[in-house]
Amino acid sequence: SQQGEEDPQALSIQEGENATMNCSYKTSINNLQWYRQNSGRGLVHLILIRSNEREKHSGRLRVTLDTSKKSSSLLITASRAADTASYFCATDAATSGTYKYIFGTGTRLKVLA
Amino acid sequence: DGGITQSPKYLFRKEGQNVTLSCEQNLNHDAMYWYRQDPGQGLRLIYYSQIVNDFQKGDIAEGYSVSREKKESFPLTVTSAQKNPTAFYLCASSIGNEAFFGQGTRLTVV
């Protein structure tokens, strides 16, 4: 079952602009994570936000979590061409009892130089 | 990346053949996972293992099999029963909340 759904599916912006992508999920979670995937490569962990946190920052990344709406957003500020990649949210369902990650469908970000 | 090695990077299989994808990690992680990714799609969980000699089916286990005889290794066999095996396969391991991924194996049925 697909737990997370990202939107938009694709996003194209100019270098220097901010990029915002959203993730919605269905069940209660322990935490939510964002990953990045360059074309044809593995995923790289970006940031984790716990269910009792509302906002978290890491460099140019800002993640918010609204557990009442079961949604999260990832903001990349001052985007660069090197940020071009697909971005996925992943959730660890609270009831699973295991670290079983469920990934969303991803947002493909293209940053134009 | 992150001490997870998948091999081979590209794999071609004839219809009706079984094929095994390798995943090795030197991170001393207990948990390991196999995901399938289709073009333009997200990741779907095939199998996962929380500890040696134990594994559980994910959302799309049919046509796949795994073993976990060693902590470091979690090979995935794509059997002839898998009707549409052409995909990008990703292995991951984790300790705590963060998963570390290999670089993937692209399997093509010819």
Task: Briefly summarize what is shown.
The complex is a heterodimer of chains A (113) and B (110). With 113 residues, chain A is mainly beta.
Q: Could you characterize what this model shows?
A:
The complex is a heterodimer of chains A (113) and B (110). Chain A is 0% helix and 58% strand. Chain A is built from no helices and eleven strands. Chain A has strands at residues 5-7, 10-14, 19-24, 29-37, 43-50, 55-58, 61-66, 71-76, 85-93, 101-103, 107-112. In chain A, the strands form two sheets. In chain A, strands 2, 4, 5, 9, 10 and 11 form a six-stranded mixed beta sheet that branches. Chain A has a five-stranded antiparallel beta sheet with strand order 1-3-8-7-6, with no helix packed on it. Helix content of chain B is 0%, strand content 54%. Chain B is globular and about 40 Å long. The model of chain B has no long low-confidence stretch (mean pLDDT 92). Chain B has strands spanning 4-7, 10-13, 19-25, 31-37, 43-51, 54-57, 64-66, 76-78, 87-95, 98-101, 105-109. In chain B, strands 2, 4, 5, 6, 9, 10 and 11 form a seven-stranded mixed beta sheet that branches. In chain B, strands 1-3-8-7 form a four-stranded antiparallel beta sheet, with no helix packed on it. Classes of the chains: A mainly beta (113), B mainly beta (110). Chains A and B meet through strand 4, strand 5, strand 9 and strand 10 of A and strand 4, strand 5, strand 9 and strand 10 of B.
